[in-house]
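Worked example 2:
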Amino acid sequence: MPQGSKHARFIVYVLVGLTCLSVPGASQAQPEPRQDDRLAARTSLREVILLTEEEAGQLRMTAEQLRLEVQTKTKSLKSISGPHIVFQKPDLIEGVVRTTTPLDLSVAFKPNRAPVNMESLAVRARKGIFKKNLTDIVMPYVIPDGDGGFSFAIESAVIPRGNFRIEITIADQNGERTIQGYHFQITRQF
């Protein structure tokens, strides 16, 4: 068979294949899910992974680093004019969230002098130069409280074992900002 004939046959096969893909029903492609469908799928998952084991490896603090940070941060707390960040679950005791994983995580943002601006929310796990933005994971769970504030609640949030710092930044509609770091001590997994 001449070389040109093989080439022509190959092109015909490619064109037939492409034509089949463009015929309605020939492809198994599904329509792009709507935003509501993506949110429902995401919030119906059993566990919400906040940090993978690999990410935790970069962000994990030693017990001594945790102790020094908690001691330093507790001494430097000042009054704030921005929104109040209220840790609801798990309990925050002496500057540390001591818990197991998975955990139920619930935080409220209460207005201080003006309504809360949720577009300003930033949630990050950090250690030195390493950080992971958790805001996109948290945002689907945020709901308004009706009084100018918001909250989120995540059941079965997964953070690997270890000591971590999570920083929450939020502002109100006047631009007054609150930045607060929280220390997590995850002692064991179930």
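The first strand starts at residue 48 and ends at 49. Helices lie at 3-22, 35-43, 53-59, 63-75, 135-138.
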